[in-house]
Design brief:
Number of helices: 7
Oligomer: single chain
Helix content: 10-25%
CATH topology of the largest domain: Immunoglobulin-like
Number of strands: 24
CATH class of the largest domain: Mainly Beta
């Protein structure tokens, strides 16, 4: 009996970024039980494996209607020339596959002998991230395949999570960054010059984009008048951060009784592309025409980054249905009657998928506001006996909905604690 064990070198986190190197240790052991050891003590057998290979695959499972592209045909041709058919091993369509690496050929193991091999591979930069959506799924697996002579192929898969790192939108920043780093290094002729990888430059660029504070102010109003002003300190965030904003109700014409803020993930299918609902002139009250560095780095147009749709009263006016599928991740609720200013803090979990786009789906993030407003500016009447306010028996309210797009980027995988386990396979 042969036991195969696989464990990632990065023990604290089985999460990798696109363009990062995945390292894995693979053990092949000739394992015998106690009864077999007693029976075969005089004549021990030697286990023989014909070959073993390791490959990184990205699978896609979707309910969308897809047609075979040139890339899919190329992958099918590549799979047909090898002994391993990854499609039959795991349900799903292979969209990204690295070249298989042969670990050994004709391996012979004595009873109790162990052979260890090291595998490393770079995650493709053009691949999608790990995503579990409503109608589509992307997942990565390291496939370890081996075969005995005149036996079927046995496979062991090791799942990993992949986070997207956006490519630099302006290639002219690459030489500027390299020259700047060289100027900051000490001028020592005995120091070796280290080449800066594209992944390091992308991390540095992403850090600058998410750390840059660019406050945006949005005027919130409905058909009855001014409700308040919302300030979002920056439009781009990383996983694990808190979306912090402030609401100012000073000089309002309509009282805000309470509000809730939901962080929602929006899954938009791109094939076939749905018809985009055009907002009316009265709905779009928070559009901005400024062009900042965050929109340049993320590749998102200014209209999608700074436009938001606000509906009037939900009772009198039908709100256009959102396109795609929505998932609410976190919620913040406050009662703010007679409050002049308050803060909004919405956490971003570490297990969600950042903003990304493929040929089939576009995943976006937004803040969904729900305001409960009232035209009653004075709450209750003074009570002369106790000196307190007497609450009214009825309070006329209206509901107002507002959507504000935000951009979420990936965090450093080393900052996300997700311990991996050892995966094993027994070949009898």
């Amino acid at each position: 009996m042969i036991e195969i064990k696989a464990k990632l070198v990065r023990a604290d986190s089985a999460i990798y970024a696109t363009g990062e190197c995945v390292e894995c240790l693979i053990e092949f052991t000739h394992k015998l039980f106690s009864e077999e050891q007693q029976r075969n003590a005089k004549a021990p057998t030697v286990e023989n494996l014909a070959w073993a290979s390791v490959q990184l695959h990205c699978y896609r499972k979707t309910s969308y209607s897809t047609h075979s592209t040139d890339k899919t045909a190329e992958l099918a041709e590549l799979i047909g020339r090898t002994a391993l058919d990854a499609v039959t091993q795991t349900p799903g369509e292979v969209i990204v596959a690295t070249k298989p690496k042969i670990l050994f050929c004709d391996l012979k193991l004595q009873p109790g002998e162990t052979k260890m091999y090291f595998f490393n591979e770079f995650v493709p930069r053009d691949g999608p991230p790990t995503y579990r959506g409503h109608d589509i799924r992307y997942f990565y697996k390291i496939t370890i395949a081996t075969q005995r002579v005149k036996s079927k192929v046995q496979t062991l898969t090791v799942p990993i999570r992949v986070l997207p790192i956006p490519l630099i939108a302006r290639p002219d920043e690459l030489p500027v960054t390299v020259e700047t780093n060289e100027e900051l290094t000490p001028t020592n002729p005995f120091l070796e010059k280290r080449e800066i990888s594209e992944l390091e430059i992308s991390w540095h660029h992403l850090k600058n984009v998410t750390a840059r504070r660019a406050p945006k102010f949005y005027r919130i109003s409905n058909k009855r008048g001014f409700v308040g002003r919302f300030c979002l300190f920056k439009p781009a965030y990383k996983l694990g951060e808190d979306i912090v904003g402030s609401l100012d109700f000073d000089n309002c014409q309509v009282r805000c009784v309470q509000f809730s803020v939901k962080l929602q993930q929006q899954e938009l299918p791109l094939r076939p592309q749905p018809e985009q609902a055009q907002p009316t002139a009265g709905d779009d009250i928070a559009s901005q025409s400024s062009f900042d560095m965050a929109s340049i780095a993320s590749g998102i147009t200014v209209d999608n980054l700074h436009k938001s749709e606000t509906s009037g009263s939900a009772r009198n006016k039908d709100e256009p249905k959102p396109l795609g599928k929505l998932s609410t991740i976190s919620t913040s609720h406050q009662v703010c009657y007679s409050t002049l200013q308050t803060q909004v803090v919405v956490p971003i979990p570490l297990h969600v998928t950042p903003t990304f786009r493929t040929d089939l789906v576009d995943v976006k993030w937004r803040l969904h506001f729900e305001f409960v407003t009232s035209t009653m500016m004075d709450f209750g009447v003074p009570n002369p006996q106790s000196g307190e306010l007497k609450a009214p028996a009825e309070l006329p309210v209206e509901t107002m909905v507002w959507n504000l797009p935000v951009t979420i980027y990936a965090a450093n995988p080393l900052q996300i604690y997700a311990p991996n386990q050892t995966y094993n396979l027994l070949i009898k």
